[in-house]
Amino acid sequence: MSLGNPVRYSDESDRPVVMIPVKLDLRDNQAFWRRNVFAIPKSGLLGWLFKLGSKAARDFPWVVGGNPDPSKRSGWFQVSRGSVDEVLYNITDKLIIGTANGSEVVEVAFQHLTFVSGAGGVCDTASERGLEERISESLSSTLKGYFDPTIGIRVDCMVNPSLPSNQLNMYLGEGVFVPRRGERPIGWIRYYPDPSRRDQYNEPLLLDGRPAGLYKGQGGLVIGIGESLLHAGIDLGSSEEVQSSFMFINKDSALAPSGAETRSGGIDASLSFCRSHGNEPVPSRAAAGDDQCDIAWKIDFVATAQVPGRLEICVDQRRSRLHWKPSPRCNAAISSLLFDLRDLSQRDVDRVWIDLDRDNILTAYALQVPRISLVWDCENEEQYVYEWGQTGAPFKTPGSVGLKCRTIENNIIEIGRADGEPFGYLELPEVPDKVIFSDTFQSFSGYHLDWLDQCGRVSFGDTVLSLGEAYAEKCSGMPVSGFEPGQTRKVVGPLVLTPYEGG
């Protein structure tokens, strides 16, 4: 699978959010995403001069193009204009992929886009879902081969009554995530103005009232604070004016050094505030408030005497979540991964790919940074290990990173940890429940193991399936329950489970 080109590390690709505001003639707004009205920043010397001399670029470094007027010609030091797909070719995301010679960083299109218009504008007069589907289908065609096909293009269209009817804001960037219509969050993000009052908290919301997080596969979130400029916002509950445009939650790009402080959970995430001055919110890591909280920050406000606020994240509140450390409710350990290639839809499997974090636990959530990846090459019956903190080529000795891999017969592969420890822990239901591997986000009924999509992939020629999707057809609906007396082992999809004695 080929994706994008070697990355240019453009300034725009490192921004957590880019907002491109345009003004549309409402008499001619059909297929607005194909019209050359969206501002694209100049590159090279002209782009540098524009940023040096532009008040918009100085005051809003996260906004591209300032407040463009379609009737005004763009000067040398301003911006060019293009359609949405041209914007996505010029303002790009970065993706690390494995190759035969080592890891490579490539440019890909941002795959989550949000459009917000004023009341009576293009997002208000059309069928919300129909408009989103038309834009997605159009961009999927023009950008084919330039984005990860396991994710696809996701588009949100919403209304902000504070905008003029002829204004349209387009949002993209690392902090923009689009949940599908009808999708329910699997976790939560909560801000407690007074941490001692656990019954009083605020949650980030999208403009249409849906929760802004936390959804399966969500690796970042930009939340507006008080200025109504962004597609998602939150009330920090401060009586003082907060001088910040937004806060940004994302996974850390760099792995923690060896010997670093043990995490309370498996999350590698950071919290930052943009354009802060004056009464500046200052975050610092804090201990988890309860057993569902995976990461928390204490937020102090400079020059105020108020009680410091607290932001907490739970990445998955479902019973079927993966635990890094066993809780009193955990009664099963994932002792190994077992792949019977005959289970995978009777197709010829080329590769099986597994991602693990720095504690050798499965990477079940997008806010985790993979430390290593183990790849089994089925055709050559060889194994490769990618160590993402290194720049060298993959190597063939998983034992050096604490893993073991063996072949059982010709079609069965088992992967485990060399120290015998589990890949994580689960809470199995007492009453039998059906296992769900596919991403059936419409319902919470069943025991969801769709988080497997975040830790592995299976390739069949040019087709790449996430691990949960690969097992959905064969294994979804099978019953699962706690261990019966004397039962020492059970296999659920690719997971080999053993009783956890301390549970």
Provide keyphrases for this structure.
503 residues; mainly beta; 3 domains; five-stranded antiparallel beta sheet; 31 strands; 31% strand; disordered N terminus
Folded structure, characterized:
The chain is mostly beta strands and 503 residues long. It has three domains: 1-171, no CATH class; 179-317, no CATH class; 332-499, no CATH class. Helices cover 10% and strands 31% of the residues. It has helices at residues 44-53, 55-59, 84-90, 122-125, 128-142, 467-475, and strands spanning 18-23, 38-41, 79-82, 93-99, 102-108, 112-117, 154-159, 167-172, 188-192, 205-206, 220-224, 232-233, 246-251, 269-274, 281-286, 295-301, 309-314, 332-340, 351-356, 372-377, 382-387, 403-408, 412-417, 425-426, 433-436, 447-448, 456-460, 463-466, 479-480, 490-492, 495-499. The strands form nine sheets. Strands 18, 22, 23, 24, 30 and 31 form a six-stranded antiparallel beta sheet that branches. It has a five-stranded antiparallel beta sheet with strand order 21-20-19-27-28. The chain has a four-stranded mixed beta sheet with strand order 1-8-6-7. The longest helix has 15 residues, at 128-142. Mean pLDDT is 81; it is low at 1-13, 44-50, 56-62 and 65-77.
